[in-house]
Task: structure prediction
Amino acid sequence: MIQQQVCRYFNHDDQPIKLICINQQCSKNKRLCYQCLAEKIHDHNQQQIVSISKFQDSIQQKVQEYKQIQDNLSESTKLITIKIENIQTMINEQSQQLTFLLDQALNQLDIIMNKFQQHIYTEETITQALNTINNKQIDQNTVQECWIDLLQELQNIDNKYNKQSVPIKSNPIRILNRIDFPIKIVNNFVSNKPNHAKHIIKHENAEWVQAVSISPCEKYLLSSGCDKKLIIWNLQNYEILQQIQFSDIISAHCFSNCSRIVYLGDQQGKIYNKTINLNYKSQILKTFEISHNQKIEFLLMISVNLLSVSEECVKISMINPTQLLRIIRLEMQIDAIEYSQQDNFLVVADIKNIMIWNARDDFNQILKHQISSTSSYCVKIQLLNQDAQLATAINKAIIIYWIDFEQRRLTEYTRVKSNDEIINLIGQNLNRITYITYNEIIQVDFSNMKNNNVLRQIKEDTYNSPNIRFNKVSNFIITVNDINIVIYQNIY
Result:
């Protein structure tokens, strides 16, 4: 409120100030009494002289109008914010749904490609034989001995695929019509295979590498070390795409089925996910809502869900939207785990047992096989031959089992001993199983154990055994020596 004062003009001392001049161009005293108005001391438009009370009311009115505008603006802002949030939520839901559908489609594509793998491998093997036989003198007796086995193998594959309603590019039996006499690729041809490519990349500033994984498309490689750093590599030119620093060591990671998203688990039990974008090297990480209280030992994609393993439990989580589906409490720490996309089951191994779980909704245990030796422990496991056989690396031996789901048991098929402890295992069928020790990479043919079954032997020092995950049908073998990641390509 404007305090009431008296006029300061000559002979106006007794007159109270009742008026005010609102003309901004006026240079005279703006506070007036009624005598000032009568004497026209202000010679401009008299309408620009108003009473103080009227002026105060005008100010209050303007303040109220401003408050009303401010309230209306605030309400409009809230409505706009709510609409933007609703639109963003709808976009996120649609994006998650599309990602979910894309992962499902890619997962089905992977299953179909795996079904064709045995057929394609056989056809390519025969084609290679046809090209080789023109330049090689092959003992006819050896060929005759192998002929029955080859014909039976091809007939089994042909019968298997004829039962499926899946179009086959070419029938393997029809290839025989182009062969003038029986043939088979024997171990004599192994030495004619092209040399494998060897590349070495370094995870700098780390004393050792903690985990390595390859994307399903085999274009990217992840490495994490004790320096708490994750590196994304381009496997086409072996250059670094991104480096991300974390507050803790990343102990496990895996790719989504479409190779566009990586899931990362650290030693505190936190799980992150990140989208790979070659055009925009973003550092944006999202914290996965499902976490553990202990170190993440394994991360694995099961269809479109994420399986995470710690020392205390296994968690199966839906990705889009994030939702915990099941928790499996563990009696012992898991040493190895594999998943069958074709038949949707999990193979899990600890220091005493090999277990197979149904990977559908209930996740019930199908069978449990106890490792006979109390001093043994299972290091690695690998599904073979359309997931009907299981290769296990136990101490210094590889044991091949048939999986008998009807009798709910594992039946030993064959085994081979190694001179050193086996730290990794990879293979698709009995013809090609590769195992890695601390000193060597050895490729073995388990289908013909009567003859010399070692197909390839490479000297390579691997001083530490990190968490390395291979694709079942992979062109790469990886070993680790401190910070050196040694990559062998086309070793098969």
Observations:
- The chain is about 25% helix and 35% strand.
- Residues 52-133 form the longest helix (82 residues).
